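Field reference: "sequence" (input) and "structure" (output). Example, Transposase:
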Amino acid sequence: MLLTYQYKLNPTPQQVVTLEAWGELLRRHYNYALGQRLDWLNRTRSLLDRCSLVCEPIGEIPQKVDYYTQASDLKQTKELFPEYKNIYADCQQQNLMRLDKAWKRWLVPDKNGKRGGRPRFKKRGDICSFTFPRVNCAKAGTHLIGNALKLSKIGEVEVILHRPIPDGFEVKQATILKKADGWYVSFSLEDKTVPESLSIDEIKTATGIDVGLEKFLTTAQGQSIEVPQYYRKAQATLARQQRQLARKTKGSKNYQKQANKIALIHLRVARQRKEFHYQVAHWLVKSYDLIVFENLNIKGLARTRLAKSILDVAWGAFLQIMQAVAVRRGKHTRGVDPRKTSINCSGCGVRVEKTLAVRVHSCECGLVIDRDWNSALNLLKLGSVGLPIPGCGGLDISQPVKQQVSYVNLRCSRYIACN
């Protein structure tokens, strides 16, 4: 299993200038390579409604451009532009690999028939990271010795090791990236000690989770977590800072300083949200052996008038984190179709029509519970089919009619987030 540990760097002013120069040169080379590919594509294609006698490429048709042809041209690039000799060769190759992946995502559909967007030309400052593919080996351009990171053609950079790299983890590659508050390094670590997943017979506890905007999620046991709304709480501060930015002269130093203040606010919101997601994920994986969630079309939901709230809770990022934490702990996760889970009764299975404004599920069988709780019970029932798990049939009439949803307090849970 591959993990990523990120550490803060403390480069000297001269090293900062070198790192920024590398990013700018790699950006220009990325744009040139993308232009080569688009030129080849336009010269070797003709529109369906155009005759070749009317629409025909002008000039010599170039040969097909791919990663290998562009990587072989790096030697010529260094001869024409000597400043590229100061960049480590592997970083330039990784830059072209990044373009090649984006190009293939656009032209080649995945197993579901979906394709990515067309690669775009990068503006100044868009490329703020570069990768050293080898670390601590004979031909590596990066060596981590203690708290010093030795980079080829840059020198030794101090690393703030706020947590040690665990024993037995192999450092595969290092990515240098720039954020609003400084430079960081992300180490890709290979962990060979990941436990095997529990067998089906060993699963003893299971739950279903229903995500929402009123409550972040509700479990099949009736526990709910409030929505933190980090972005909503920061909106007033962001609006004030953005008004100050609008008064600055675009491109001036004061404009850049104010833009960096806004970037710091967004960075803080993103970190708060990520920390919250990890806390919830560790709590769920620690409590249950099987977690059933709903496969939502989050991109489609983000196009509605609730887009800001949906993007603020970031369900997709949370589900990815939860699945990664579950794999590391040997637990199981399962996604099911969410259709009709909030309409059907978890006790008797009867369809109970209700609008989104109705937050309480009330059935003729006598079951009156929270709407999200009812949906979580239905998700658990769908995800646990064929599993020897007791108590997955939902609530029935013999249980209390009116249920109160309890809220789990995840504050000050550093232990949960770190383990």
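The first helix runs from residue 13 to 43.
The chain has two domains: 2-190, 200-418.
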